[in-house]
Design a protein that fits this description.
Helix content: 55-70%
Strand order of the largest sheet: 1-2
CATH superfamily of the domain at 4-219: Rhodopsin 7-helix transmembrane proteins
Structural class: mainly alpha
Shape: elongated
CATH architecture of the domain at 4-219: Up-down Bundle
Strand content: 5-15%
Largest sheet: 2 strands, antiparallel
Distance between the termini: 78 Å
């Protein structure tokens, strides 16, 4: 019955890989983790078939697959860990696979002459019968990958200052050390050298525990850092609320790979000494702060760092707070300098209710979008210019909930509009009905909004 541990390990690896596929892995780290999961699942199934093979020929075939997959797993796991921390050139990362290719080449020669396969009471096993240069080279490369993973995980723990991520990487390091370095690698070596009973097989259990740890890490989250429940007016408080939104958005990603964008953002904005975490809350200190220069750096970074559009949407509160703080002509210059990005990101439509729209050149940022995306962004931009004029906020939210495609709209107390989830709703509609339904729904919503605005005697009707 013990051989079923390998089958169970393979199934769990498949489940983890399937979960990653369902989540549509967008980062290199998750894609490499997916490959690692597939390789380990292949190892589990091959080992099970090796142990239960009916004859020596079949046992030898599956033994070779077991060895091949066991040596391919570590390179992909190392690539996973290295891809978490920073933006890396995928071509340079691929260089890490060169030693693995060398291993495969050596194994295609007379490598397996170093092993003898024999039957035991608990299935087929193996032992090393010679130490040709081939087995020494392959073993050194294998150990180099093992040490590389250990160092890379240790480096992640030391470099992150976020408690959740430190906890995640510590779990990965401990599980890798116990279940892979000490567990699987050491026991397999002792069995191969005839220093341990060949019937003592726990590799499947150890791989199961490894992927159980990875599964736990993928689901491990923390409570969001609390943000103010009321709309703030002071610039420093508003900026703190934006950083809190940014932090909450990125720290709960599966491997925390997005969190380092937050670190890069505050470091390159030169505000790392102003940002601190107190009782799970982001604190921003603004003594002697040059607001204009801060915004200028932030906008440039949004163009360079691929952050989620929803994070950029929340930056509208910062721009409006800067305008209220009396930035005046300096904000005009910043808007002019970053006009193309502000148009592409839709932010310019929400700054002070769209007061800059008369000062910009023709907006061509929708030309390369498909009809659905362009249509949604048009309605988003219209809402950005008028949402702060709506007094009946609760009634407006209730109005949105009546229309299927509008249920995914997120509108904050700061007048920020996000349509990220709307696209998910639209995808569930038959393709030929999508555009007509979007237009019909949003036209009805806008008619209601304009009716409410015009009924308010305090509003400028011509505006």
């Amino acid at each position: 019955m013990y051989v079923y541990q390998y089958l169970i390990s393979g199934v769990l690896s498949i489940f983890v890989s399937a979960y990653i596929v369902v989540k549509r892995p967008k980062t290199l780290a998750l894609r490499f983790l997916l490959l690692f999961g597939l390789v380990v699942s292949s190892w589990g199934f091959a080992t099970f078939l090796n142990k239960t093979a009916p004859n020596l020929t079949m046992a030898t075939i599956f033994f070779k697959i077991t060895i091949l997959t066991s040596h391919l797993g570590f390179p992909f796991y190392l690539l996973t860990v290295l891809s978490i921390r920073e933006k890396r050139n995928i071509k340079k990362l691929m260089l890490i696979l060169i030693p693995a290719v060398i291993q495969l080449f050596i194994m295609s020669q007379n490598y397996f002459d170093n092993y003898e396969i024999f039957r035991t009471e608990s299935g087929w096993s193996y032992r090393v019968v010679s130490f040709q240069p081939s087995i020494i080279v392959v073993s050194v490369i294998f150990l180099a990958y093992l040490v590389g993973i250990f160092i890379a995980l240790l480096s992640l723990i030391r470099k992150t200052k976020y408690p959740l991520l430190r906890k995640k990487y510590t779990i990965l390091l401990v599980s890798f050390t116990l279940f892979q370095a000490v567990g699987t690698t050491l026991t397999n070596a002792l069995i191969a050298l005839s220093l341990l009973d060949p019937n003592f097989r726990v590799g499947g259990i150890l791989q199961f525990l490894t992927f159980l740890s990875i599964w736990y890490v993928l689901f491990l989250k923390e409570k969001n850092a609390p943000s103010s429940e009321v709309k703030e007016e002071d610039f420093l408080q508003v900026y703190s609320s934006f950083l809190t939104v940014f932090y909450n958005h990125v720290t709960n990603t599966q491997l925390g790979e997005e969190a380092f964008k937050f670190t890069e953002f505050i470091n390159r904005s030169e505000i790392d000494d102003r940002v601190s975490f107190k009782r799970n809350k982001v604190i921003f200190k603004g003594d002697g702060l040059n607001i204009a220069e801060l915004i200028r750096k932030n906008l440039k970074l949004f163009e360079e760092i691929p952050v989620d559009q929803e994070i950029v949407d929340h930056y509208l509160r910062v721009l409006n707070a800067a305008d209220r703080s009396g930035l005046g002509w300096r904000l005009d210059i910043i808007v002019k300098e970053n006009e193309e990005f502000l148009k592409k990101s839709d932010l310019i439509y929400g700054i002070s209710g769209g007061r800059f729209l008369g000062k910009i050149s023709e907006d061509k940022s929708l030309e390369d979008l498909d009809d659905i995306d362009a249509c949604l962004k048009i309605y988003k931009r219209i809402l950005l210019t008028i949402v702060n004029k709506i007094e009946a906020k609760d009634e407006f939210k209730e109005m949105l909930s009546k229309y299927y495609v509008a249920q995914g709209i997120k509108i904050t107390d700061y007048g920020e509009v996000s349509i990220k989830r709307v696209k998910d709703y639209v995808q569930k509609i038959p393709e030929d009905q999508r555009l007509p339904l979007i237009i019909e729904s949003f036209n009805s919503i806008l008619s209601w909004v304009y009716g409410k605005i015009l009924s308010n005697a305090d509003e400028d009707i011509e505006e």
